Protein: 3-phosphoshikimate 1-carboxyvinyltransferase
Amino acid sequence: MSEVWTTPHRSAPVDAVVALPGSKSLTARALVLAALSDGPSRLVRPLRARDTDLMAGALRALGVHVRADGADWLVTPGDLRGPAEVDAGLAGTVLRFLPPVAALATGPVRVDGDARLRDRPNAGLIAALRDLGVRIEDDGRGRAPFTVHGTGRVRGGAVTVDASESSQIVSGLLLAAARFDEGIDLTLAGGLPSMPHVEMTVESLREHGVTVTATDGGWRVTPGPITARDEVLEPDLSNAAPFLAAALVTGGRVTVGDWPTATTQPGGRLDQLLGEMGASVTRTDDGGLQVTGTGVVRPLVADLGEVGELTPVLAALCALAEGPSRLTGIGHLRGHETDRLQALDEVLTAVGARVEQLPDGLVVTPGPRRAARLDSYADHRMVMAGAVLGLAIAGVEVADPGAVSKTLPDFADRWSAMLGADR
Ligand SMILES: O=C(O)C1=C[C@@H](OP(=O)(O)O)[C@@H](O)[C@H](O)C1
Ligand SMILES: C=C(OP(=O)(O)O)C(=O)O
Structure:
C-alpha cells in the first residue's frame, strides 16, 4: 500500500458478503491461556496481524513454542524464563497481558514498544503486580519501558486495582492468576471501561477450566491448572464495523459471515447501534449478520463506554448523519493507539463536520462535506473511519494507511473487494 491511500468514493448501493479473520481480543487471550496451560493447544482461524504476531513473539521470547506457519497456530507451553526482550509494538493486549506472565518466568523480562506505547496508561497494572509480590523496575510512571524480574512464582492474593484507564489491566491479571500461589482476589478501585472485554476474559478462563467468581467489588480466581483446549476463534466483529457501516452510508446491503449467536465481543452490539442509526439488521439463514441501509444515517446518542473500540467508525457515521450526535463514556480513548477524541475531532472537522470535545466524549454536528487528506495517527481504526468517510465524500485520502496492519493488514484489499462485489 502506498503512503497515501485515496479511499474509494461510492454513491451506488453496496451489495456484498464479507468474511473476516479471527478476533484480535480472542486470539490474544487464547495465546496467553494456551501458553499457561497444561498441554499443547491448536488455535483455529486466529487473527494474523501485527498485534497477535507480537503476542506470539512475546510468548516465544519467554520459552513458549508457538508454531504459526500453517493455517492453525499450535502452542506448546514451555518453562517460562528470561532474560528476554518483549516488543509490545502498539498493542495494549501485549502491554497489559504479558507482564503477569513474565512475573511467572525466571529472570528479567523487559517490555517496550513503539514511541506511542510509552504514553499508554499502565500504572494500575504495575502497582497491582508489585502488591502481589512482583519486583518491577520502571521509570516511576508505570509505563513502558519496564522490566519484570520474575522468580518463577507469584504470591498473588488480595489486591485493589485501578483499571479506570483500561480494562486490559484487569484482564491481564485475571488471565495469569490461576498460576499464582494464592490466585487473585481483585477489587476494583474505581471505574472500569470495556466491561464486555472483562467478561470475555472470564469466559475464556472458564472454558479453560479455571474457577472465576464475581465478588462484590471485582473477581476472584482460584489457583489451579489451566486446561489446554483447542479453540476456533470467532471473526473480529470490531473489524466488521466499517464494512457494515458501508451498507448504511450507501443505502446498500452488507452481510458479514459466521456471526456468533452469542458473543462477548463489543462488536456484538453493532446490530443495536447500527439499528439506532437507521439500518435494518437481520440474521441470514447461513449464520451471517446482514445490515441494510436506506442511505439516510440517523444521529446517534449513546454511551460507548463498554464498546469504546467501535467509536472511530461510529463517529465517522455521525459525521454523515442527518443531525448532531453525542457519544459519551469514552474518556479512556485518549489513551488508545492515539488520543482518539482529539484525532476524531481533527479528522471529522477536516471533512466539514463541527466537533465539540467533551471530557468523556464527542458531539459531532455534520456540515458541508469537503475532501481532505487525513492522518492515520498510526491507528488502524482511524484508517477504517477514513474509509467510511471516503465512501460518502469524494477525495478523502488517508496518509500512512499501513497502520491497519495492527489488526487487519489487507483491509484496503478487502474494502475494494466489498465495493467490487455487487451482484
Ligand atoms: O481486552 C481487550 O482485548 C481489549 C480491551 C479494550 O481496551 P480498553 O479497556 O483499554 O479500552 C479495547 O478497547 C481493546 O481494543 C481490546
Ligand atoms: C484500543 C485498541 O487496541 P489495544 O488492544 O492496543 O488497546 C483497539 O484495537 O481499538
Summary: Residues 237-250 form the longest helix (14 residues). The chain has a mean pLDDT of 97.
